[in-house]
Design goal:
The protein is of the alpha/beta class. Helices cover 45% and strands 14% of the residues. A five-stranded mixed sheet has the order 3-2-1-4-5, sandwiched between helices. Strands 6-7 form a two-stranded antiparallel ribbon. Strand 4, helix 4 and strand 5 form a beta-alpha-beta unit. Helix 9 packs across helix 10. The longest helix has 19 residues. The N and C termini lie far apart (52 Å).
Length: 258
């Protein structure tokens, strides 16, 4: 079967130096771009993270400092990667909680704007967990009756994720072959930022989801406590979270002018 697409969708997977979205870096990225007519193109890059890769992490994905020492940095690759994904929806395995947030951080550090306003994200892991509660290797075996060779390599995981999603759509009648439906089905709690520091209340307004102002409107806090905005921008929060906060502040300022 083929996915019913209205625009291209990029399946992607990251191998990284760790799992901290703010501080860790990409060491490998693989993208499989699927077009509405069924055509596909793929690309895999090794990336110099400009920081040591912990041995415990290298033991998982097999990528060592020596292997990436002479590879381009993400900043050097960012324009090429952005060209491949900028017109497409995104999909991955645990991508809503990890791969997309970390990709956004890398893009913003490289000086390339990144947001999800014009696209949706399909998280194949969420669909899998809602339906079967297992891992990618188990999903690949369950849905595709194949063993996942070279697990924890970006390319193998990316191709497996693409095949699993197609099999999921074919197996479950309640899943529509539609990217927007799959994105909504695979989403978790709605957040304004990727890291989950800013969520929405019942009326769709942005509220803080952490700290002393948890549950309070972002606009109210920034208005009543101006210094808090500066603290947030200088603290160790993800760049994308800071971008969202700045946009909210500017929107509130413009509304006052109106």
């Amino acid at each position: 079967m083929t996915l019913n697409l209205t625009k291209p969708i990029c399946f992607f997977d990251l191998e990284t130096t760790g799992v901290n979205i703010t501080n860790d870096r990409v060491v490998e990225i693989s993208i499989l771009k699927v077009f509405p007519n069924g055509n596909k193109e793929s690309k895999t890059w090794l990336v110099n993270p400009e920081m040591p890769i912990p041995p415990v992490v290298s033991a998982i994905h097999g990528i060592t400092d020596d292997r990436v020492a002479n590879e381009p940095t993400f900043k050097e690759l960012a324009s090429e990667i952005n060209t491949m994904i900028k017109d497409a929806d995104l999909a991955g395995f645990n991508s809503n909680r990890f791969d997309i947030p970390l990709l956004a951080e890398e893009m913003l550090r490289a000086g390339i704007d990144f947001d999800m306003k014009s696209r949706v994200a399909v998280d194949v892991q969420t669909i899998f967990h809602k339906m079967e509660q297992r891992t990618l290797s188990a999903a690949y075996k369950f849905y595709c009756d194949k063993s996942l060779e070279n697990a924890h390599t970006a390319e193998a995981d990316t191709l497996a994720t693409y095949e699993v999603l197609k099999a999921q759509v074919q197996l479950y009648d309640e899943l529509e072959n539609d990217t927007k439906f799959l994105a909504e089905f695979s989403s978790r709690k709605k957040f304004a930022d990727f890291a989950g520091f800013i969520s929405y209340n019942k009326t769709g307004q942005e509220v803080f989801s952490f700290g002393k102002h948890k549950g309070k409107l972002v606009t109210d806090v920034l208005d009543q406590e101006p210094g808090y905005f500066g603290w947030l921008l200088n603290a160790d929060f993800p760049l994308y979270t800071k971008k969202v906060l700045t946009a909210i502040k500017l929107r509130a300022f413009n509304n006052k002018l109106d």
